[in-house]
Amino acid sequence: MDRWETFHSGSASSPGAPDGALHRLFDDLVLRTRVAYPLDGDTYYRAESVIRFAHGARTWEWATFRSEPDGQRSNVDRLGSGLDADTMPSYGEFVLLADLITSGEPAVRYIRLDDSDPVDGADRATLERQATETVTPPGGSPLEARRYGVVVDREQIGTHWVVDGRIELSDWNGATSVHVGSAAKALAALPDAVVTFLRNGFDG
To answer: Which helix (H) or strand (E) segment is 199 a member of?
Structure first.
């Protein structure tokens, strides 16, 4: 899987317009996720998550995370850190969601880990299949979609809309991301340094 999304932070300077991007690459049991969007001035928030999944299981083996400019970093081995098989770093929810869509099950429950502090930051979470409704992506046309919600302590902290088995739109408590067909569409008009990060990561 090689998936690109436009990111819409909802900032006052560009309401509704894409001002960042999100890239997910899942290959050989490794999910690599990069996201970038503007903060104040010319500064962009950038984050990169890498999660190695266990073969044939809904769990993971190790994960790394880094974000800037806040300087957050983590590197954790699940078994070595004593974390149970039902835990999941938050960026790994995408794989849980893909499995849930395919299985047709009503929900999956797990322990949601804070990517920047996976050992000490955890919440009980449910990823659940919800209603079918009409939703309109920023700058797009209305879609009839199945809604899936990420619920923590009875509060919905994330929402995904799925059409024909594909995640088309996500809401991150105000910010949104929209699936697009190519890197070129996702990266259009972004600064060169941000494009380089989204393509190659911090070490690229």
So the answer is: helix 192-200
DSSP per residue over 93-131, as a string? HHHHHHHHHHH--SEEEEEEEPTTSTTT-EEEEEEEEEE
What span, in angstroms and rounded, lies between the C-alpha atoms of 122 and 153? 12
Which tens digits make up the pLDDT trace of 143-175? Answer: 999 999 999 999 999 999 999 999 999 999 889
* Residue 117 bridge partners (DSSP): none
How many degrees, rounded to 5, is the angle at CA 170 between CA 21 and CA 106?
145
3-class secondary structure, 184: helix
Cα 158 to Cα 156: distance, rounded to the nearest angstrom: 6
Range of the domain at 82: 2-200
For the segment 11-47, what is each residue's pLDDT rounded down to a tens digit? 756 667 899 999 999 999 999 999 999 998 889 999 9
How many domains are there within the chain? 1
